[in-house]
Design a protein that fits this description.
Number of domains: 1
Structural class: mainly alpha
CATH architecture: Orthogonal Bundle
Shape: globular
Strand content: under 5%
CATH topology: Hypothetical protein af1432
Radius of gyration: 17 Å
Distance between the termini: 60 Å
Largest sheet: none
Length: 214
């Protein structure tokens, strides 16, 4: 199994699948998650190949970007099999992809260290400056307002309401982004998350000042 060839093929695959995405789930998101996952894997002595490859292809299976979660997962599994990735690695990766998403919270914890690392990398890309940019990109794509002071953040969210309920870009900070710092699995990710979390708090403070014309 030629790992570098598979990673190169994965880049081509993800560009073909997500290259035109404008919701914040594009190739460059996948690239950043892969690079972050590789960095954390080295620090945490985990399988760097599994972390990098899963980081690259994780959103190809995303139910938001496919007809269904099942069809997205089958697309990923079929591609991995065509690349002759070892069966055990495929099973590990498929488990990670199916359990790493936020989906409103309340998901069962990921089981493997590699899963924890890819989940951390994906969540790190959801916070900080890039996380803010991705939030507004996705909200625009989903037809949500930037902010409505009369529409309060939802306190109780399940998978269905998280995907389809009415919200705003700013509410998304409270419904998800500001929760992620305390949900990081690894010490490496926790250290990176702290600064990104503080940046979001600073941004929100400035947002409200400008909204109120101060």
């Amino acid at each position: 199994m030629n790992k570098e060839r598979i990673l190169e093929e994965a880049v081509t695959f993800v560009k073909s699948e997500l290259g035109a995405d404008s919701s914040g789930h594009d190739f460059w998101h996948a690239y950043r998650v892969s690079e972050l996952a590789g960095r954390i894997a080295r620090a945490e002595s985990a399988d760097e190949f599994v972390c990098r490859l899963t980081g690259l292809i994780h959103d190809v299976a995303d139910e938001k970007l496919n007809d269904s979660e099942e069809s997205g997962l089958m697309k990923v599994r079929s591609w991995l099999e065509r690349q002759q990735v070892e069966f055990g690695i495929i099973e590990t990766m498929m488990e990670i992809i199916q359990t790493m998403s936020f989906k409103g919270g309340g998901q069962p914890p990921v089981r493997t260290m590699e899963g924890k690392i890819v989940q951390d990398a994906d969540r790190l890309d959801a916070i900080g400056a890039i996380g803010i940019a991705r939030t507004f990109a996705y909200s625009g794509k989903a037809g949500q307002l930037i902010y409505d002071p009369n529409l309060k953040p939802r306190e109780e969210i399940n998978k269905e309401s998280y995907r389809k309920g009415k919200s705003t870009a700013v509410n998304h900070f409270y419904e998800k982004l500001l929760k992620l710092k305390d949900m990081m699995n690894t010490p490496s990710a926790q250290a990176l998350a702290e600064e990104r979390h503080q940046f979001m708090l600073t941004y929100l403070e400035r947002f409200y000042q400008e909204w109120e014309l101060k």
